[in-house]
Amino acid sequence: MKVTCEYCDSVVDAENNDTCPNCGAPLANSRKAREAELNEERLKKEAEEREECKRQQKLEQERIEAERGKMILDAVTNLSGRAHSAKNSRALKAGCFVPILIAALIIILFVVFSIIRNTSGGSFGSLFPNISDAELSQDEEKETESIPEKVEVNFGEKAVTPMYTVLCDDIKEVDSYPWTVQKGYRYVAVHLVLTNNLDYEESLNEKADFVVNGIAQDSRFLSGYKRISSSPVTAGLSVDGYLIFEIPTDVKTAQLKYGDYVTINIKPSDIKGK
Question: The pTM is what?
């Protein structure tokens, strides 16, 4: 193929020459130039195909995470419906639905975090560009250090945690009227004094379990006994109230578990009769 040199207007055979024999300038339509152009187009196309593949993989991952989140939400909805329909059942303990909700929320948050992490490249730093990974690591260490240790005391002793102090100073058998007690069981009223150890007001109404002979007993409600308030308690102040449980008459071992960190050991002789 004959071409005209752009620099000296000489007519040159582009098939056999890459440069002009007269002036030495490169020929734009030479075979070498065309091969370089084709190779550049091929590399560009391959790069575009790789980018498209990555984009499709990302979309598929987001779709899978979205479906997983929907499945979890559907499961939580089903659990809510079942718990609501069974709320009057004797087998359903008071407050047992709360841990289910908490566990479900933790799972949902985990899924959401996974989606965000995948979207942002798997780094906390990409989510919070103004915070370094070292600072985040230090914050995580501080949070770990702030988790309180579990406290175990005996009846009549104070269980002190960074958040609150728990004192169980009275356990007595009470009349179950107007309710009927099942054979081999009795109602007891457990008196607690709770003190806010934080420097700000906070509710101290935690979940409590009365464990007798290794089995958590059913909580009950009786009029005439002051309940522990769920309202926030001023820093340094205390509140008191009763918890009512239906427990076996034959008590070998007993413990009162308050919140996640307090265990109070109770001897059979600590439970007063009528």
Answer: 0.49
